[in-house]
Every structure is written in structure tokens, then in C-alpha cells.
Sequence to fold (184 residues):
Amino acid sequence: MHVNHKRNDGLFIIPLMEERPDKPRTAAETLWANIVALMVSRWGKENLNQLAREAGIGTATAARLKSKATNTRVGTIEAIARKAFKIEPWQLLVPGLDPDRLPGVPKKPSREDLEAVQRLVQAHHAVTPEQRALFLQETEEGQSLMEHYPATKMDASKWSAKDKAVSELRPEPPERNPRQRRLL
Fold:
């Protein structure tokens, strides 16, 4: 949207907006704008003949699609998406499609990812509020925790006084219930 003029509304000057004429408003306009963006990205220019050839549709169908003269069949959208551009049909209908950053569906997390998250949650609950605050403070400042808190495999004689104090703050691991499943 762009500003065409301003209106004084008491204390504020409010810009009035109007629709940009080049911005797609209908599904057909969005579809065609995305096809053009993909053609330019992949082939360097808008090319109806190449679109028809790659998708396996007629050139007249491609021309009707461009002119938005008729409703486009789902089969045509599938052919264009899957054959010509190797994407999913629904991606052609996403407004403002960026050919370099195609939208996707989040994948289901793996068992390993879920177990890692569960270990992180357990570790979070195993530390004191002061330790959580220290951790958040350190990470928000963008500092590497490894610079300040060496791994336990390192020589403890090289630890600073701060490192030794932090290592002493580590709580004892919680007692495990024998019925509890071990994830570590």
C-alpha cells in the first residue's frame, strides 16, 4: 500500500492508504503473479511456450491463465506446480511467493529431537532460579557460555574463581523414580 495524501485527525496526521494496482487481489491474480515470479527466477523471463511445454499443458491454456479469462482447473495447477516448477500446488496460491524462499509445511520432529527437548526441559527444572537467570543473562548478552564455563573434561586447575563458584552451584541430580523411563 502507498500513501496518496494525509488527513489531520486532531493530534495525529494519519496517512490514507489505497490498494496498489500491481498487488494481486484475487486467487487468479496471486496464481499468475507467482507463476511469473517462478518463470523469471528459473528461466530468466516470462515464457508461456516453455511453461506449456514443461507443465504439459496447451499454449492456449497458458494464455488463458495469464489473462485470467477462465477459472483454472486444479489439474492444471498441479501440472504447473509439480511438472514445471517441482513444487506443491498449494505453494502457487501463497500471496507474495518468493521463489528463493518457498513456503513449506513444518516436518514432524524426530524421536531424537523430542528426546533432546525433553532433556533440556529436565535440565531447566534441575537448576535454581538464580542459575536460570545467570544463563539467560549470559545468552542474551551474546556471550559464549563455553568461554566462561569450561566443560568438565577440562583441567579444573585452569578454571577461574567464577567458574569454580558456578561449578559448585550445580545441584545434585534429582532422585529417579524406578518407574520413570530413562531418556538420557
